[in-house]
Specification:
With 305 residues, the chain is an all-alpha fold. The chain has one domain: Up-down Bundle (Na+/H+ antiporter like fold), CATH 1.20.1530. The chain has 13 helices and no strands. Helix 2 runs parallel beside helix 7. The longest helix has 38 residues.
Length: 305
């Protein structure tokens, strides 16, 4: 992990997020148009990036690493689900599902892809897709159930297996296992589209910030949740990985993805299910800004211990 490259990444991400904020404040873009950005990223740009990341030679060591990453991620999701079930029982009815969902569903599948690729390169993005499989399953099962109450298993299963990023992982794995190399024209198209994902993600977050603003963002509940989401959860992941002697690369990637802010879908679902939308937006924005500040600290800590 190169600190110079990390700070360049941080500056780029902050500048791109600021650009999204400025475009909305100048009324060039409407904050409500951000759904176009998120749909483009989730349905096209990230899948292209994912398929491209799997264009590498498969070997026994890689398969072993994949299994370790998958097990670490499953453990993290179980831990976060337990936290979500026990920590927020005293919260208001409209705020409880917001914090529960934001605990189990971080922004690792959105912002995390940009960070994984920026810090660890293409291999970070590749391993990151394996890490994200359990998170995406939990997102459409336990995550939705916090807002819905009762859960329809069949509909959730369909959402999981038809998610564009899950489909991209399956295609990527098939290509990797079969040893098929994509034609140069297709490979370059995937690369070109995939490179657009990070700027659009940051523009999207800037648009969210433009709509929610800073007023009332910092409060006891939002600060305590930020502490949990950005410090305590990744610290627990680091401790367990060190105790179990997990490889440094897998440990670092897992810690950084565990330190991601609340998922950007938190506020969308809060609005859909009549929860506290304003509170959800504050949680998303505060944890997002906090993660940009804390990321270099986590990278430094991973290097010195």
């Amino acid at each position: 992990m190169n600190f110079k490259e990390l700070f360049i990444l941080q500056f780029m991400m902050f500048a791109e997020m600021t650009a999204g904020w400025l475009l909305c404040k100048a009324k060039i873009l409407n904050p409500k148009d951000r759904s176009v950005f998120s749909k483009a990223v989730v349905n096209l740009l990230l899948p292209c990036n994912i398929v491209k990341s799997f264009q590498t030679e498969l070997n026994a060591d890689l398969m072993k690493d994949f299994m370790i990453v998958l097990l670490v991620s499953i453990g993290i999701q179980i831990f976060c689900t337990i936290l979500a079930s026990t920590l927020f029982n005293r919260m208001k009815k409209e705020q409880k599902p917001v914090l529960q969902y934001a605990t189990v569903c971080s922004n690792a599948g959105f912002l995390g892809n940009a960070v994984a690729e920026g810090v660890y390169g293409e291999m970070g993005l590749l391993y990151g897709q394996i890490y994200l499989i359990p998170l995406r399953i939990v997102m459409w099962t336990a995550g939705i159930s916090y807002f819905e109450g009762k859960s329809d298993f069949r509909s959730k299963l369909i959402k999981i297996i038809t998610h564009p990023c899950i489909i991209a992982v399956i295609i990527g794995l098939v290509l990797m296992i079969s040893g098929i190399t994509l034609p140069s024209a297709i490979d370059r198209t995937l690369t070109s589209l995939g490179r657009c994902s990070t700027p659009l993600i940051m523009l999207f977050l800037g648009m969210v910030l433009a709509e929610t603003g800073f007023e009332g963002m910092i409060g006891k509940d939002t600060l305590l949740f930020s502490l949990l989401r950005l410090i305590l959860i990744p610290a627990a992941v680091l401790l367990v990985c060190r105790i179990l002697h997990v490889a440094a690369f897998i440990t670092g990637l897992s810690v950084l993805l565990a330190a991601m802010p609340a998922g950007s879908t938190t506020s969308v679902l809060a609005e859909q299910y009549k929860a506290d939308v304003a509170f959800a937006s504050k949680v998303v924005v505060l944890t997002t800004l906090g993660s940009i500040i804390l990321l270099p600290a986590w990278v430094y800590l991973l290097q010195v211990i």
